[in-house]
Amino acid sequence: MTRFSIYPYPDVRRQVDRCSWPRHLCAALCVVLGLLAAPNVFAFSLEQVDAVAQALAEREHEPTPPIPEALGKIDADTFGQIRYKRGSRLDWTGARFSIRPVSAGHVYRHPVELFEVVDDEVQQVAFTKSDFDWPNESFARKVPADLGFAGFDIRYPLQRPDAPETVVRFLGGALFRAVAHDQVMGAHARGLAIDTGLPAGEEFPAFRRFWLVRPEPGARRMTLYALMDSKSLTGAYRFVIEPGADQTIIRVKARLHARRPVDRLGLAPISSMYFYGRNERPDDSHWRPAVFSSSGLLIHEGEGDWLYRPLRNPRELRLDQFPADGVRGFGLMQRDTRFGTFEDPVGRFEKRPSVWVTPQAGFGGGTLDLVQLPVNSERHENQVVFFEPHEPLKPGDPIGVAYDVSFGQRDAVAEEVAQVRGVLIGVEGAEEQGGEQSAPAYRVNVDYTGGALSSLSDSAPVVASISREQSVRVLEQSVAPLPAGGWRLSMLLQPTGEQPLRVRASLALEGKTISESWQDTLPGQVGRYLEEGK
Questions:
Q1: How does residue 134 score in pLDDT terms, banded at 50, 70 and 90?
Q2: What span, in angstroms and rounded, lies between the C-alpha atoms of 502 and 159?
Q3: Is the backbone of residue 265 left (phi > 0), alpha (psi -120 to 50) or beta?
């Protein structure tokens, strides 16, 4: 018979009495432990975490106590000097994977608990000051013995067995992110989004506890579990980590329990930063040509149908919703992979990964919501995309979801269609034509590369397919090959009133669509675009 416990045996009551969580959480664990203490128990799994989440959902939410105020006020540079020492408990002998816990501090003010699962035994990973190198002795004396962890890094050798790299990071709330080889951390995935973009404000759920399953020697996958908690709901999560040189894939399975109805539930969220690009007009204080971690939203709508929406830093909060019943996939892509686009040797935005979500279960009827927030610096992620189901999450009616998240150094999804690689937008002003003054119009140039375009001659009869609302007049359209490769679709779009211009365009050959569809919305007042530059 195998036996395990969420707290180590033999004395469950004594362990619960010493529990550092709020009293209601310990009580919930005690209930679950009472169920698990019997013989003939299966190995640790998502079902055990879900039992804790379900018990917690029946009680009021109590936040985790914060760390001492002084440690929460340290700056990012000081926080970055706190390092976990090598050779500690989570450097597993013979395993490809290793864990580097991160100390609480700075903006990470609510500690999480870490547990290690070995075979059928679960043991808590205790916070020990001596496991860390602190900025200096004076600083170390101020650190309480029970400060706690903010999260952890997962390390894995992507290229050489003797050179492990940080491939996944769980740090802050319900955030996690990953990289493939030769990348730097960029866009985040989130465990969940709650009320994102609503006037009342967003609620931020958080992972409060992690169970790290020790991988077998030589294993190329690692499994971990997490317990989510927030005012509105609880959740049980399983993550299967599969690092790779081209993509690191995280397979997610979760079950959610509501404490109260949720107005806007966001499944499989991705968040990123877009400050400005070539189409924006920053003032002279901005020396870099562009600053963003992701260039656009890509949606796989169905068989052969792909939609690409460029990101922008709006003047005010903006919500765009896309029909997504049975969506095949979606993600925030980084398609500007040249250093010259950004000219930033520190930020290395050209090395930020594209992030792609592939739904597996629980994504039925719903919309994809793109929430864009105005920002005046690169310090904040202002782009969030998620799947919002039509059916709300209600108390007593849990839901389950499963999906894969891939972080890739190229596109995180294989496509056979030509891809949008760049968009240039300008304004052609009023001109005298036959004694009359013409109204201004947008010149939109969409550049495509790859797919069928790679094998076409310059004389191939590629044409534009443009759909628009009545608020748009298409004055010109043309498709032509570019000297450096690829093709350009050029359009002159004129507003017919003050309503926003909504346009969708793609390339076609002999009646068949051969590219992604570019889609965007531009102000009906061209003067406003000139003033805002976005």
A1: very high
A2: 45
A3: beta
Reduced to 3 states, what is the DSSP secondary structure of residue 363? Answer: coil
Residue 63 above 50 pLDDT?
yes
The secondary structure element, H or E, covering residue 386 is strand 383-389
Question: How high does pLDDT run on average in the chain?
Answer: 89
Q: CA-to-CA distance for 4 and 229, rounded, in angstroms? A: 23
pTM (2 d.p.): 0.90
Amino acid, single-letter form, for residue 303 = E
Fold of 71-408: Beta-galactosidase; Chain A, domain 5 (2.70.98)
Which is more confident, 277 or 2?
Answer: 277
CA distance 392 to 89: 43
| Whether 5 contacts 12, CB under 8 Å | yes
Quick check: 504 and 466 in contact, CB under 8 A?
Answer: yes
d(Cα 81, Cα 338) in Å, to the nearest integer? 31
Q: Does domain 419-532 have CATH number 2.60.40.10?
A: yes
> Tokens standing for 39?
């013989």
Tokens representing 293 are 């971690």
Alpha-carbon distance values, 464 to 4, 324, 423, 518 (Å): 62, 25, 15, 11
Angle at 255 between CA 98 and CA 18, to 5 degrees: 60
If DSSP codes are grouped into helix, strand and coil, which group holds residue 340? Answer: helix
Domain ranges, ordered by start, for the chain: 71-408, 419-532
DSSP code string of 71-137: HHT--HHHHHT-EEPTTSTTS-TT-S-EEEEEE-BTTB-S-BEEEEEETTEEEE----GGGEE-S-H
Q: How far apart are CA 269 and CA 202, in angstroms?
A: 13
